[in-house]
Amino acid sequence: MTSPPLWDRLRRARIVQVLIVYLGASWAVLQVADTLTEALSLPEWVSPVTIILLLVGLVIILATAWVQSLPSTTAAEEAGERPTDWEIAPGQAVESLKAGRLPALTWGRAILGGVVALSLLFGGTGLYVGLTGGPSFLGPTEAGATDAAEGIAVLPFTVSGVEDDAFWGEGMVDLLSTNLDGMGGFRAIDSRTVLARWREAVDESSSPDLNASLRIAGATGARYAVIGSARGVGGDLRLVTSIYDLGNGQEVGQGQVQGSQSDPMKLIDDLSLETMRQLLSGGGEDLATARNLADLTTASVPALRAYLEGERYYRRAEFPQAVEAYERALEEDSTFALALFRISDAYGWLEDIGSERAIELGALSIQHKDRLSPRNEVIVTAGNALYTGDLSHLEPLEAAVRKYPDDPEAWFMLAELYIHMGEATRASAADALEAIERAIELDPSFAPYYVHAIDRSIAVGDTVKAARYMDQYGSFSETDVLQGMHDVAYALYLGDDEALARGWTDLDRLSDQQQGIFWGTYGLDMPDAVRTMEVADYMHGRTGEVGWARGRARWTISTGQWEKGESLVRDSIPGGPSPQTIYLFHTFTNVDVGDLLPIVRACEPGAGCTLWRGALAADEGNWADHEAMVVEARTATLELREGGDEIQSRFPNSIETALMGYRRLLDGDPVAARRTLEEGQGLTNGVGDEMTRYWLAMANEEVGRTEDALRWYQLLTRASFRSVALARAAAMAEESGNGVVARELWTTIARNYREADEGHPGAAEAHAALERLGPTQP
């Protein structure tokens, strides 16, 4: 007997009709699921799970239709061996399962299975929402804030013990909404909308309970509800607000103020400020850090509104817009310490670390630091130290990150000090990067953190991290003045030959402002001395400034291009070479600049002379002139201190201690020299301090403190004689048996000398050391 054709069997099973009916029913189920999800704010996974169940049901329904069309099924039903089409027969189904057989497919069982599955889905979802405090009780989907995530609905206040019920009741909807609107990036729902929804749901003789109030707020499309009360207390009035997140029905904060009823607008302003602080604390963590929340001390609503606007721009590294907003905040409250600190910082990013405006505003923030909490006073004071060079604030900041390890601002400020105060902090580029990455881990959406994450990654030669941080930074803002600069740096310092060519082209396209920031960020910190020299050449060609002429001459010391350096020193510096340039060539090269040394011996004592004249006098054994320079520095220190300028007095004081320490080193007392130089190097971070640290490394080397000497030599990354310092460190590492470190250092030195003069002794020494150590030296 032949089986009927497949199409005949499908037609007999009525597969097409069954499929049409099932798809129609599925559409209806999905519509119900969407409606329930929207109305009850059910979890987003409800709809996908419903679709999965319907697909499983489709397979079961089609299989049932097929089985029911078989003649054998009809025969078994007639013989009483299996349930009929619409029979459920639960007992028989259980017996089949016990026997290890699949229960017979019937229409009754298929439909019942679908009903049970969907009932379990929606019943379980409802139970889940109830147990987790979900928003299903708050009303429509708007309460979940899917369309207006930052809306705030201020509801009419409950009033007691106050004569003017209308003012303190419904009037607060308009007054408080006006103050809150736009503050911190939030949007106050229009008071007319709120009152319309209120009057639809509440009659004049009743007061809604909490759930009803939240549903009313949700109906306005808000994300947050502010429910308040005004209560007379003696002659005063107490105003209280409770802020609820309509996404989960939870209270996120409570504000309270109390004062005289004779000045209602001040009370409302104070309540607005306190309510916003609480809202930021509980629901706006993306806008304000813990540091900000603790110290939003302004009493001005417009000032706070403008400040929070500035914070939004600052977070995205949009510094020009941030400055404009902070300026408006300070117009309203000139004593707003956080606004002063932040705008100072923003100017530092926009211009450079020496920005006059940044320094001025930073000093003003210190004048009002008594308005800050102790933790934030440490951070703000340390930030101002970036401009003053006062290293005394490093230790309190390091203590702060130990005490508050979850404060990203503290970690980032520590990195800032490590970077901008350089070797004086004893921190390397890797140390700074570690601190920055801790800040990013704590607050990954704060764009300014990534600026130094990028430049420190480039400084340590980590191409993977640099590329990743550049991608992340680029996602924050399209208007940042720093954009483009990072691509240039990556190409110049980490790129291949093709990228290098592109980097020089792109560098030429940067504005003068961007190029200045580029040099301040990358110019001195990169390990490649040749590239630093080339950038200095470029900057001199673009600007013609004497500072670049002197700088590029000095950088030939570390590139081994001493013939070029001598030519630059003698012929290419307007006004002639500085005492510093002459002394460095005299000390670290074999270039004969003896005819230029009288310039150093006869220079006028001051910032650009005293250290170099005193050091040369010590080298030549002219102790009378050496002592004269010590006295000059000491006198300048005392005069500045008597004038009340303790910060500036540190600079001549550092020169005094450096010269005293150097004499003790030359006198054969490295222990005393080390002690004196250690004290002097921590006073400031000026250019001359590089010599202090070099002498300190020598003193440590002579007393056998190998690790300290190695660290100080290696930290001289910004010194124009860095290759000489690294060579001493490499020799020490090799002598102490640390072949890995020695090889790394000699490799860096050889790279720095890759364009050195033919027969350069430093280049020959580096290549000989690498050949001696071999490629696999342990």
Task: Give a description of the structure.
The protein is mainly alpha-helical and 778 residues long. Among the domains are: 127 residues, no CATH class; 150 residues, TolB, N-terminal domain (Rossmann fold), CATH 3.40.50.10070; 114 residues, Alpha Horseshoe (Serine Threonine Protein Phosphatase 5, Tetratricopeptide repeat). The protein is 65% helix and 5% strand. Strands 1, 2, 3, 4, 5 and 6 form a six-stranded mixed sheet that branches. A hairpin with a 4-residue loop joins strand 5 and strand 6. Helix 17 packs antiparallel against helix 18, helix 18 packs antiparallel against helix 19 and helix 32 runs antiparallel to helix 33. The longest helix is centred in the N-terminal third of the chain and has 26 residues. The radius of gyration is 38 Å and the shape is extended. 45% of the residues are buried. About 4% of the residues have low confidence.
Form type: extended
Helicity level: 55-70%
Assembly type of the shown chains?
single chain
What value does the Rg take, in angstroms? 38 Å
**Distance between the ends:** 85 Å
Here the CATH topology of the domain at 137-286 equals Rossmann fold
Helical/strand content category: mainly alpha
CATH architecture of the domain at 137-286: 3-Layer(aba) Sandwich
pLDDT < 50 runs, ≥5 residues:
131-149, 284-294
CATH hierarchy, class of the domain at 137-286: Alpha Beta
Summed up, the helix count is: 39
Largest sheet: 6 strands, mixed
CATH superfamily of the domain at 137-286: TolB, N-terminal domain
What share of residues are in beta strands? 5-15%
